Amino acid sequence: MSTSSGGAVRLSLACWDYDRTRALQSGRVRPSGIDLIPLVLPVEETFHRMLANAEFDVAELSLSSYVLGFSRDDPRFIAIPVFPSRVFRHGSIYVRTGGDVQRPEDLRDRVVGVPEYQMTASVWIRGMLADRHGVPADSVRYRTGGLHDAGRTEKIPLELPASFDVTPIPPDRTLNDLLVAGDIDALYTARAPRAFAEGTVRRLFDDPRSAERDYFRDTGIFPIMHTVVIRRDVYEANRWVARSLLDAFTASKDLVYPELHEITALKSMLPWGVNEAEDTVALMGADFWAYGIEANRALLETFLRYSHEQGLARRPLTVEEIFAPETGGRLLI
Hints:
By secondary structure, the chain is an alpha/beta fold. About 35% of the residues lie in helices and about 20% in strands. The chain has helices at about 20-25, 45-55, 65-70, 120-135, 175-180, 195-200, 210-220, 230-235, 240-255, 255-260, 275-285, 295-310; strands at about 1-5, 10-15, 35-40, 60, 75-85, 95, 110-115, 140-145, 165-170, 185-190, 200-205, 225-230. Strands 1, 2, 3, 4, 5 and 12 form a six-stranded mixed beta sheet that branches. α4 links the parallel β7 (about 110-115) and β8.
């Protein structure tokens, strides 16, 4: 962090290349009082560099990693209620084609692979399975490791209650190969395993889109994967930057909505993208990718409950305390 010649606070921002952040990254939208230095990086690189060395002033970060760190002593970051990544995860559960796991309820007492136990996608999957399919998180044995590259470890060391069986796989094995071999019964993963394209692995939910739409109708939840965090020393030096960044991210995101409905000349290569946008608005409302606390309160409360129930957050957290008070959160004492 530094000050530019014009008096603005210069901040680095590490974030992936999303349609909803592109106007902010290009300079079309500028946060008030901030000279933003955008760094377009893959999410895995941003997460690693931020969690290991806090390299950036502002960064996209896994919601689960942030909550886990916040629940411990002296958290290094404070979040703003901006959510650059949201994904329904029914389609992220994989089982062997022809195997004996046919329904979500069959996962109880099974061995399941996850790249990291603490990753946000798996927190949502475990919570959804517990709430809706009678598969408590501690009724499954988890094996962690690389999906296609051996040797992956948790980005944040875990301190889980004894009721959770979470063990790394051998350092020379991958989750993809273990599932194909039958050494694990299922796989929760944000990225599709190679065996899925080969046909030896299938999605547990045959029609995940229908399952996810039903889930939204029942719960109102469009799962948040990532939030945006400010390094705490940067925030404490200029607490107003939290609100400035929230407003700028929101303005950037709101520019995208009209483009989703542009039919004269398609902005996207998807031929029926406009129809999909219309269907989405009909189901989820006009601001279906909302930022801010109140629009996401019930969803965030559910995630915080999952994090604690699954042994990740050390204590129950409230929505207000995890976000900067300038953005609608609660003042930290």
